[in-house]
Amino acid sequence: MTGPSVERLHVGRPNLGPRDVFDSYVDRIYATNWLTNDGPIVHELETAIANRVGVRNCVAMSNGTVALEIAVRALGLTGEVIVPSFTFVATAHALSWQGVTPVFADIDEATHCLDPQSVEAAISPETTGIIGVHTWGRASPIEKLQNIADRHGLALMFDAAHAFDCTYGGHTIGGFGRAEVFSFHATKFFNTFEGGAIVTNDDDLAARARLMRNFGFAGYDNVVYAGTNGKMTEISAAMGMTNLTVLEDIKIGNARTHDAYAAALDKVAGVSLVVPDLAERNNFQYVVGVVDAGAEVRDRILSALHSRGVLARRYFWPGVHRMPVYASSALRVPLPVTEHIADRVLVLPGGPSIAAREVDRVTNAIEEAINAV
Ligand code: T4K
């Protein structure tokens, strides 16, 4: 049971850079009295991210969901867009909120990313685009999806919420498709409290996104588009600049925790760890277990962990297509792998702050729950 002295372990405990660096940015905010609306620290962050990713444009946003919505609009997507169902619900919501119908495609069992065959089967005359999700920081099958998009005249973009500082074919994620979207939410590898960004090599697309982010203002008193408010604040950008200074350390800490889980879970029959593509760079932000026996045992383990203060999560159960808001829509293609994986995934507390003894505490609890009759 959870005693008062047992620390609760979270999935997605925020990574915080040095307080003195953050304070120096706060001093600047106080000195300039500039809090938001395309401020200087947001500009610094956009430049730093564009350089790090190796793209021409970074448009910072208030959060990843608004960044997805604006990307969908700026790309002119209409009708139907193909997305995985095995994703955070925001990927589908970003379409629905723009009056675009999300059409769910299945995923690959090993990578948890879109299955290109399923994507192709889900295309209809109404389809205008594909949104791939780089699940757990592992790149979607980008080349295959680009090939499908090209053959069918579709726009391809990526929800790269999990994939900041990860690579595909040795190239940093952010420059693929027409645009990629990051989330800088508190629980992400790189956070700005709340935040997100559209990154793209398409200058016109970036200009449209900037316009949409700021109500459609093209200068004082001149609104040329029915935009929204997707602006990132200076304090968020300050947190971003602070966290960029420690990104490598966070990654090392994440990888160390991931390795510790890999070693510990290796001895637990019935649970395997999703291993990132080691030929690529990964941020190791997510520690993802797969429980062979299925939902009943997975949920038993989850309850056992929660009762011990280990707040593991069932991301992305039950699959977006089974969420009440989407459940009444007919499926275009079957989603057997999505259902299989959604019933088995258990995301464990990761990150640099998880000590080796805490990994043992988690894995021992998993083993006990599996062995309990
Ligand atoms: N696309 C994908 C593929 C995504 O995964 C996400 C977000 C998005 C798009 C949308 O991006 P944003 O609009 O969020 O920028 C969390 C996050 O809120 C969400 O950002 C994330 N994906 C999703 C996978 O996880 P919840 O509802 O599970 O969060 P919550 O409040 O339960 O927090 C998770 C754990 O973190 C808890 O144990 C508490 C701990 N925590 C949380 C916060 C906010 C802390 O320790 N400190 C904190 O400040 O969605």
Automatic annotation (TrEMBL):
The family this protein is said to belong to: Belongs to the DegT/DnrJ/EryC1 family.
GO-annotated molecular function: pyridoxal phosphate binding; transaminase activity
Organism: Knoellia aerolata DSM 18566
Presence of keyword Magnesium: no
Top-rank taxon: Bacteria
Pfam families: DegT_DnrJ_EryC1 (PF01041)
PANTHER family in the cross-refs: PROTEIN RV3402C, TRANSAMINASE
Modified residues (N6-(pyridoxal phosphate)lysine): K188
Keyword rRNA-binding included in the entry's annotation: no
Active site positions: K188 (proton acceptor)
Name under which the protein is recorded: dTDP-4-dehydro-6-deoxyglucose aminotransferase
GO biological process, one term: polysaccharide biosynthetic process
Keywords: Aminotransferase, Pyridoxal phosphate, Transferase
